[in-house]
Amino acid sequence: MVLRTWQDEYVSRERKVTVLREPAGYQESDSFGLDERIVQLKSLWEGEVAGYTVIVEAKDRAARPREIKDYREDVVFAIKRVVARSDGSLAA
Fold it and tell me: Which of 2, 17, 39, 54 is the least buried, fewest Cβ under 10 Å from its Cβ?
């Protein structure tokens, strides 16, 4: 499974990227695909599937929904684990 993640949600010093924002971080316009993302992350969390991420750059980080400006075609990162953060978000 390959997940799209956002460049501005990647923390290089931790080598982690947000794969699901905290519940309050979603707006109604973000809901398209949210249910599918939750099912995918449950499968990753339970070790049922291997996961990878492509980190993409947003055209406008404040826009909802976001659109992709660019991404590196030559890099796909393996997801080694999914962790819960104290704010309720999930990171890989």
Answer: 39
Q: What are residue 3's DSSP bridge partners?
A: 53
Q: What is residue 25's predicted lDDT score, i.e. its pLDDT?
A: 60
Identify whether the C-beta of residue 60 lies closer than 8 Å to the C-beta of residue 70.
no
- Distance (Å) of CA 50 to CA 3, 27, 30, 45, 81: 11, 29, 25, 10, 10
Q: Which domain holds residue 33?
A: 2-91
Contact 30, 64 (CB under 8 A): yes
Beta-strand pair 68-71/51-58 = antiparallel
Predicted confidence (pLDDT) per residue in 39-87, tens digit: 899 999 898 899 999 999 999 999 888 899 999 889 999 999 999 999 8
**What is the residue-averaged pLDDT of the chain?**
88
